[in-house]
Amino acid sequence: MAAVWQQVLAVDARYNAYRTPTFPQFRTQYIRRRSQLLRENAKCGFEPGLRRQYLRLRSQLLALRYGPLSEQSSFRASSVRSSRTTLDRMEDFEEDPRSQGARGHRRSVSRGSYQLQAQMNRAVYDERPPGSLVPTSVAEASRAMAGDTTLSENYAFAGMHHIFDQHVDSAVPRLQFANDDKHLLACCSLDGTLSIMTLSPSPPSVKVTLKGHGGPVTDFAWSLSNDIIVSTSLDGTLRIWNTEDGRCIREVRDPESSELLCCTFQPMNNNLTVVGNSKHHLQVVNISTGKKVKGGSSKLTGRVLSLSFDAPGRILWAGDDRGSIFSFLFDMATGKLTKAKRLVVSEGSSICSISARSWISREARDPSLLINACVNKLLLYRVVDNDGTLQLKRSFPIQHGSQLVHSIFCPLMSFRQGACVVTGSEDACVYFFDVERNTKAIVNKLQGHGGPVLDVSFNCDESLLASADSTGMVIIWRREQK
Predict the structure, then answer these.
(1) Which residues contact 439 (CB under 8 A, 6 or more apart)?
(2) What distance in Å separates the CA atoms of residue 354 and residue 170, rounded to the nearest whole number?
(3) 239 to 3, 179, 203, 249, 264: CA distances (angstroms)
(4) DSSP code of 173?
(5) By C-alpha distance, which of 11, 68, 1 is closest to 34?
(6) Residue 358's closest CA among 414, 418, 422, 407?
(7) Minimal CA–CA distance to 167: which of 210, 203, 199, 230?
(8) What single string gives the DSSP state of each residue in 398-467?
(9) Number of other residues whose CB lies within 10 A of the CB of residue 49
(10) Which of 336, 342, 320, 338 is nearest to 328 (CA)?
């Protein structure tokens, strides 16, 4: 019945904003202590009916004291603006013969194809005995980290390891663990700063605060070596930061003086960063020189909100606030972008999160894209060709109509039974879904945030999960030990 106590914590968290409004640190201390006490009481084995009765009474008392909750009306009021949803219609872009030739050349020299990769994945899987592990070079290491557990056991996150509140009362739109790191985490805030946090040695602390942007910070990305962070802001600048001392190495201003909304590193060349802005433009920037790359720009149908490369860095997907996802072929030698395909997910809706994965699990062996699109669903697409064409595989119901909510693939899922994805939601919860389960796909549900959960991130061995919300709270969840 620990789930009932988590529901109690969720109720307390939603009313937490009403407590001592002039002392936000007290609210954080309260929810930390409340979480600790509820976890301890959950082990005492009280009669289930008594716990449910306590939950009802506490909800009624809090409603009498502070007034009824608004049912998140502030972020549910903005409904999906389109009545026509085309979830599987792709458009080709007619280009001049030279461009077609260039695209054909790139396909002929690529080191692999999505069709071939999917076929090879299936062949490897079909040759294995039922229940055995996928034979990859990192499979044994993955199994050692994950253990021989079921999906539900392995994703039994519940205990709060720590709560960060340095950005309290300003939304934290993005957070991300450093690459291949268990304890280093960063987040950005609409208060104009970024924080780099360390979870070890104990107690967890803010290692350095990155200050310099003149407006809300909208996105950031770690370099592969974790020594650099790039960030975008509504002040129209891209900044490059030293993660050790928090020093701003370079500032690159948008030539159109437009708000910068998202960014990502080119995975095979961290000298190149792709940036999306509010005037519908996508641009490749060389961060070593601070200059735009010739041929590395394109225009979408709306404000560019999300970006994601495939693992080899050959295909870039970009989503906008008009409901479209574009795929681009990326020339590794020159940084040139060639527009390839367009998918209309839902006209007028915002594509606020795109995550690419070459292989989710033994059961989900096709290269895939995970999409949040403000349609009250989390969408999973398969990538069917070298142009980045997408085909809808399935969807999962969540509350998501207006906020910029993000989702992720679980990092270890490629090497063991089952496949999981995690997403934030506007109902202040974190959801875990099994992408191969036809019914009852929810594996776990975390409650404890006081506002819409905007982003989630795993550390490299999945022992910790971080989530951030619209109130500025960052919760580090600890996986329960079985």
Answers:
(1) none
(2) 24
(3) 43, 19, 30, 8, 12
(4) -
(5) 11
(6) 414
(7) 210
(8) ---SSS---EEE-TTGGGSSS-EEEE--TTSEEEEEETT-SS--EEEEEE--SS-EEEEEE-TTSSEEEE
(9) 9
(10) 338
Question: For 16, phi and psi rounded to 5 degrees?
Answer: -65, -30
Contact between 426 and 454 under an 8 Å Cβ cutoff? The reply is: no
Distances (CA, A) of 194 to 66, 183, 240, 253: 33, 17, 12, 18
DSSP H helix total and E strand total for the chain? 8, 29
Q: Distance (Å, rounded) from C-alpha 175 to C-alpha 477?
A: 14
Indicate the length of the chain as a whole number.
Answer: 482
Segments of 137-192 assigned E as strands: 157-164, 174-177, 184-188
Of 426, 459, 445, the residue nearest 161 (C-alpha) = 459
Question: Which residue in this structure is represented by tokens 């509140």?
Answer: 165
C-alpha 465/C-alpha 155 separation (Å) is 10
- Residue type (1 letter), 33: R
| Separation CA 355–CA 265 (nearest Å) | 14
CB neighbours of residue 104 within 10 Å: 10
Look at the pTM and tell me if it is higher than 0.85: no
Range name among 60-69, 117-126, 169-178, 188-197 with the lowest pLDDT average: 117-126
Closest CA to 418 of 150, 157, 155: 150
Q: State CA 347 to chain mean position distance.
A: 22
Angle between helices 48-66 and 2-15 (to 10 degrees): 0
The region of weakest confidence among 20-24, 53-57, 89-93, 444-448 is 89-93
The model's pLDDT over 76-130, given as tens digits with 9 standing for 90+, comes to 333 333 333 344 445 666 444 444 443 333 333 343 455 655 555 555 444 444 4
